[in-house]
DNA sequence: CTCAGCCTGGAT
DNA sequence: ATCCAGGCTGAG
């Protein structure tokens, strides 16, 4: 998108999880994209017009970048789940597809990005320098929730979802049920490393394509083949020498997976 | 805090 | 037919 002009926008639906901004087409048409970025799970597209397109994929959202006029474009049957199409200069077609419509698209002033309600309370990026053991230890000490629930809270750390929290806790040898307040400092060091390593490994694998997720070029990630505990209930723990069984429990309405033996 | 709700679709 | 799903929010 960077450096390209938004020539036209097709709106095939008026709302996803929330209403699409009524002036989305009028505001963004003609704008040139200055840069793209990300904050937590939100994708940010800044334009030279001073408008920022704020995007969230929810659970099933996808962006697909193709060349206009190719078979995917204007096919005989329009995809009922492709809700928005951005027609960029240079024949670049960007489709936003989201079967469950839990995603979000909004337009805000670029100047308002730092104070936007959805972004301002996000915690540090887990791969950034300000996410470290001192920070996390203090943050966990201040909470009552189980560590699994705390790590899912985007205000503590931004961008971790159910899969990567489960995987990181396995890697750190910490039970998702453990109280946030009762994790020794040394184990928080290990947890920070585990979170970073889990994300690094998943990123290198192109993410986890369970069903809907794919990269913008349509290629699938492969990290789902390397889940140690996520979705592995009933299986033997993959840790060498560990004889434990992976269990599924529900915490704060979400499934957690962990080894009964090596996660304490 | 937990819960229901937003939606569709896949697995059992 | 029922349960489950990568996220988030407003209500209780």
Description:
This protein is α+β, with helices and mostly antiparallel strands and 264 residues long. It has two domains: 6-117, N-terminal domain of MutM-like DNA repair proteins; 133-259, Orthogonal Bundle (Helicase, Ruva Protein, domain 3), CATH 1.10.8.50. It contains six helices and ten strands, in the order E-H-E-E-E-E-E-E-E-H-H-H-H-H-E-E. It has helices at residues 24-28, 117-120, 133-141, 147-152, 162-172, 185-204; strands at 6-11, 33-39, 42-47, 51-56, 62-67, 82-88, 92-97, 104-109, 246-251, 254-259. The strands form three sheets. The protein has a four-stranded antiparallel beta sheet. A four-stranded antiparallel beta sheet has the order 2-3-4-8. A hairpin with a 2-residue loop joins strand 9 and strand 10. Helix 3 (133-141) crosses helix 6 (185-204) and helix 5 (162-172) crosses helix 6. It is globular, with a radius of gyration of 20 Å. The N and C termini lie far apart (46 Å). It binds a DNA duplex (12 and 12 nucleotides) through helix 5.
Beta-strand content estimate? 15-25%
- What CATH calls the topology of the largest domain is Helicase, Ruva Protein, domain 3
Low-confidence stretches: none
Question: What is the CATH class of the largest domain?
Answer: Mainly Alpha
Termini Cα gap: 46 Å
Q: What's the number of extended β-strand segments?
A: 10
The H/E string reads EHEEEEEEEHHHHHEE
- Roughly how many Å is the radius of gyration? 20 Å
pLDDT averaged over residues: 96
Oligomer: single chain
The profile of the biggest β sheet is: 4 strands, antiparallel
Helical residue percent band: 10-25%
Basic shape? globular
Instruction: Return the CATH architecture of the largest domain.
Output: Orthogonal Bundle
Q: In terms of structural class, how would the helical and strand content be classed?
A: alpha+beta
Spatial order of strands in the largest sheet: 1-6-7-5
